[in-house]
Amino acid sequence: MHRTRKAAPAFRTARLASCALLATAAALTGCERGSSDGADETATGPSGCPTVQARAREAVTRAERTDIPWGGPTNGPEAVSGKSIVYVAQTMTNPGVAGAANGVREAARAIGWNVRVIDGGGTPAGIQAAMSEAVALRPSGIVIGGFDPDSTAQQAARANAQRIPLIGWHAVPDPGPSRQPDLFTNVTTRVEDVARISAQWIISDSNGRAGVVLITDASIPFARNKSDLIREELESCEGVRLLSVENIPIPDASSRTPREISSLLSRFPDRWTHSVAINDLYFADAAPAFRAAGVKGSGPPFNIGAGDGDPSAFQRINARQYQAATVPEPLSLQGWQIVDEFNRAFSGRPDSGYVAPVHIATAGNSEGATSWDPSGYREDYRKIWGR
Questions:
Q1: Which numeric CATH code is attached to 84-189+331-347?
Q2: Per-residue three-class SS string for 223-243
Q3: For the structural domain made of 50-65+192-326, what CATH number should be given?
Q4: 170, 203, 274, 287: which has the fewest C-beta neighbours closer than 10 Å?
Q5: Is the CB of residue 62 less than 8 Å from the CB of residue 321?
Q6: Which secondary structure element, helix H or strand E, spans residue 275, and what is its range?
Q7: Record keywords: 4Fe-4S included (predicted)?
Q8: pLDDT digit string (tens) for 212-265?
């Protein structure tokens, strides 16, 4: 894996050099940076961005480290017994949602609680029905798993009235407690950190010259905010052109992504060098279309997932099959954190305040891995809980 991955820069240099010649010609016609379908738009800017690129490379080097120690809480209340948790999932086809749910299950076994997962199926009606069912069960706590709490405002209000604490996973843009909506805390990496490092990887990987396709799900506020932040960071490099922003709802990804990828390959046959998606699953669905078009799995385009990092993403990265990198959430860790946060809520304590750092997984630093988590958290949480 390492040897074939290391061979890529030479190819990219030649590829990007030819793009640069096209970019110079385009500059004379007055093309502007940004999303465009215009025939005169080039995939690369005229001169790159040396200062921004250097800063991006430093940030990426730090984020690629795998020797990150556990930096979360080491003290807190002992385990409260006899609790039950309901995890309401936006859709269990979303690998991030499912991965966090599995972490909650694992942690609940360790602390001695019961967990039930209710799948909202990715539709507003399904999520509302799942949330209604969760509140009707009168559990000790409810997890808002990857959807906007405002979409279930009535159900959330009933839970609040019944003093059932709500904890979000990627439910609102920021980590920590929320008052509107009323969440004890929201467990997530900082979306601005994930967005920034994803864009910086593209800037660094392309030497400041790239033609980028951005894939998002605008129906999810968290995802929409992430893609907006990615776009802003990409625009900090004058050599990067955003060719297209594709809005593909996650529940429709399997049916729509192959069709959109085929269209993009037709529209940008020579200009598309990199892709960034708010979720890794898009690249699983994109692979058949790339393969049918004769695109090599090792790229270009070189694809990075700005979030989740499910096992299939690691498999694609290490096999060099239509994904080069991911910014993985520590999904199992976050499940354990959710359980710990509930234990703090049940004990009348404030939230832990912990936010996991961002990490970039590539073929160079994740060979054989299927997930990403800092080491040591299971042992420390067990010590905190007295388990």
A1: 3.40.50.2300
A2: HHHHHHHHHHHHCCCCCEEEE
A3: 3.40.50.2300
A4: 287
A5: no
A6: strand 274-277
A7: no
A8: 999 999 988 778 889 999 999 999 999 999 999 999 998 899 999 999 999 999
